[in-house]
Specification:
With 678 residues, the chain is α+β, with helices and mostly antiparallel strands. The longest helix has 29 residues. 31% of the residues lie in helices and 27% in strands. The protein is built from 16 helices and 34 strands. Among the domains are: 108 residues, ATPase, nucleotide binding domain (Nucleotidyltransferase, domain 5); 127 residues, no CATH class; 115 residues, no CATH class; 63 residues, no CATH class. The strands form nine sheets. It has an eight-stranded mixed β-sheet with strand order 19-14-13-22-23-34-33-30, with helices on both faces. It is globular. α9 crosses α14 and α10 crosses α11.
Length: 678
């Protein structure tokens, strides 16, 4: 009896599922509408459907992987738990003070999100640890007991503890944690020395507050889901690897970009396999579009924001804009056509779904002929084109354009929004998009890829075989990853190889202990070491590789190697580097990877035929130059080497690929569709 793994990615509109046969490497895909009120309902429904459709017993499923947006939605929709914040005396208002910088330089009336820990639930305790980790003021038991009484009276469901310099000495945070764990209401408690043992009290405090804010919501969801499954569950984390549901429930802040991270992992795997390691990912779903640039590697960052709140745990570097298939088109107060960021979501959805009465990007694509009304989700759902045309006509009357011109305008506006996201991840960071291959996925990405690539000068588009479920596939193939960090503050001549190696060995020992507790094989563990480096006195750092521990180099040569790596990174990122200025190491970072049993995408190696059996008809499609007779292809029947000239529409269950005039496509050995300009 074959073993299987299942990966489930819950999006705003659809829940995507991949069933993987670990013996034959076959993958079966499935989509079902998401259930925003309770995402686990759509998860379990889709799981039952895909197992039944393929005659697979639940007992045959060896692994279940999950990409979730629970934590993200809790922040964006303000559905987390009120948080009590415990800080060093004098730091109660660190969340308001923040970093004295403006997100909008010339806007004097910027609305900042309200702190997740209200001021009446913040408590300062008399304690102090200095910048060397020495205790200069003891935290007395009486102060802790008073705090316990106050929090018991408040009845908060979440508590965050963030003391000054606790990343160097966690004794006081540990003492408070031990006392708070005895509270009768069993609140979710986070201490910064466990969640983020790094300097910068504002970012560290914000991160630990967010962890407690979403803690109850995520913990309850994952616990109930795991109990319903009756087996272990692994969760995709924001840095691109999976962790146990237990760890995700303990540190939910690491799952903020769970779903989008799965997409980047799947896209990068696809690109490398096809021979294109330098890619720009375009994940266009129902609500938003996520863009990530991968220069032969998946890029990470530790300085992200969600809903305006800083989060400093490792995440894949992803730029998100409110541009999806469900993005709502409207006319603003100035008479301009605007698309997004508001979305029709899964319910009521686009107007063509039959419930909603607001025009979306999906409705515009349908009216332009780029989608077939009777072929949505492989024919499982019929779209109401007449309803969409009627509502677009009402919008058109407001801006004095025809229905077709208005629909084209909606597409141009949403494409412009996505183009800005691509520029933000490429040109604004020193990368030329013309040197990259675009990998579009999500339900809507392949519909817009050619027009976007043309606008950005990107010469090639790689459409995966299953673009609509690529995020779920990425969740399925992700390795187990643990991230650790430690602040050291070494500058210039103080940089010492022996001390750095000792610090890394200590972090690796902690990692091994945690992995052993999970019963995971140590022989498959692969550590990666990184340094956060900056010019002395600079405010922010760049992450570089740590010189290989296998290279026997002395401290002096190591210092030069670190400096040279930093100068190159600084030149790439900012366009200049001052090699005469001294550098300092701020943080050590350890990424521990452990390769999982995963399905392999194998080459099809089927010879293309002289004819094209995938050709199933022709339709009229409206492009920028007007209506054009466009060929229709069934992607399931495309074979290796088959070539398609645009304009063309390629139909499949999970998406629609729009090949605009001037582009050609070829199917490669892995079932990918490689699009290039003529």
């Amino acid at each position: 009896m074959d073993d299987y793994s299942v990966a489930v990615d819950v999006g705003g509109t659809f829940t995507d599922i991949v069933l993987c046969n670990l013996t034959t490497n076959e993958q079966q895909v499935h989509k079902t509408p998401s259930t925003p009120d309770d995402p686990s309902t759509g998860f379990l429904t889709g799981l039952r459907e895909v197992l039944a459709a393929n005659s697979v017993e639940a007992s045959q499923v060896k692994h279940v992987f999950h990409g979730t947006t629970i934590a993200t939605n809790a922040i964006l929709e303000n559905k987390g738990s009120p948080v009590g914040l415990v800080v060093s005396d004098g730091f109660k208002f660190v969340l308001e003070i923040g970093r004295q910088s403006r997100s909008e330089l010339y806007n004097l009336n910027v609305d900042r999100p309200a702190p997740l820990a209200p001021w009446e639930l913040r408590f300062g305790l008399p304690e102090r640890v200095d910048h060397h980790g020495a205790i200069v003021e003891d935290l007395l038991p009486e102060a802790i007991q008073t705090l316990v009484h106050l929090l018991e009276e408040a009845g908060v469901d979440g508590i965050a503890v963030s003391f000054l310099f606790s990343f160097l000495n966690s004794a006081h945070e540990e003492a408070v944690l031990a006392a708070l764990e005895k509270l009768p209401n069993n609140p979710f408690i986070s201490i910064s020395s466990k969640v983020l043992p790094e300097f910068r009290e504002y970012e560290r405090t914000s991160t630990v507050v967010i962890n407690s804010y979403v803690g109850q919501v995520v913990s309850r969801y994952l616990t109930n889901l795991e109990n319903s499954l009756g087996k272990g569950l692994r969760i995709m984390q924001s840095s691109g690897g999976s962790i146990t549901a237990r760890l995700a429930a303990d540190q939910p802040v690491r799952t903020i970009l769970s779903g989008p991270a799965g997409g980047v992992v799947g896209a990068f795997y696809t690109g490398v396999q096809a021979g294109y390691p330098d890619i720009i990912t375009l994940d266009m779903g129902g609500t938003s579009t996520d863009v990530s640039l991968c220069p032969s590697r998946i890029k990470e960052t530790t300085g992200s924001q969600v809903g305006g709140y800083p989060i400093s745990v490792p995440m894949i570097d992803i730029h998100t804009v409110g541009a999806g298939g469900g993005s709502i088109a409207r006319v603003d107060a100035g008479g301009a056509l605007v698309v997004g960021p508001q979305s029709a979501g899964a319910d009521p959805g686009p107007a063509c779904y039959g419930k909603g009465d607001q025009i979306t990007v999906t409705d515009a694509n349908l009216v332009l002929g780029r989608m077939l009304p009777d072929n949505f989700l492989g024919g499982r759902m019929t779209l109401d084109r007449q309803r969409a045309e009627g509502l677009i006509a009402e919008l058109a009357s407001q801006i004095s354009l025809s229905v077709q011109e208005t629909a084209l305008g909606v597409i141009r506006v949403v494409n412009a929004n996505m183009a800005r996201a691509i520029r933000a991840t490429s040109q604004e960071r020193g990368y030329d998009p013309r040197q990259f291959t675009m990998v579009p996925f999500g339900g809507a990405g392949p519909m817009h890829c050619c027009e976007l690539a043309h606008e950005m000068g990107i010469p090639r588009v790689l459409v995966p075989a299953r673009p609509g479920i690529l995020s779920a596939l990425g969740v399925a193939i992700a390795d187990i990853v643990k991230d650790y960090s430690r602040t050291v503050m070494m500058r210039g001549d103080d940089i010492n190889r022996v001390q750095l190696d000792e610090e890394f060995h200590g972090m690796e020992g902690l990692a091994r202990e945690e992995l052993e507790k999970e019963g995971l094989p140590m022989d498959r563990m692969v550590p990666q070491r990184f340094l956060d480096v900056r010019y002395v006195g600079q405010s922010f750092e760049l992450t570089i590789d740590y010189p290989s521990p296998t290279r026997r180099i002395d401290t002096a040569r190591m210092r030069r190697s670190i400096a040279d790596s930093f100068y190159r990174a600084h030149l790439q990122r900012f366009g200049y580097a001052d090699r005469g200025e001294a550098v300092e190491i701020v943080n050590l970072r350890l990424k521990l990877g452990l390769e999982m049993d995963k399905p392999q995408i194998v080459a099809v190696q089927a010879a293309g035929s002289g004819s094209t059996p995938a050709l199933i008809g022709e339709v009229q499609v409206v492009f920028s130059g007007g209506p054009v007779t466009t060929r229709l292809y069934d992607r399931e029947n495309l074979r290796t080497g088959d070539q398609i000239s645009g304009p063309a529409i390629v139909l499949q269950m999970d998406t629609t690929v729009v090949i605009t005039p001037g582009w050609t496509g070829t199917t490669d050995d892995y079932g990918n569709l490689v699009l290039e300009t003529e």
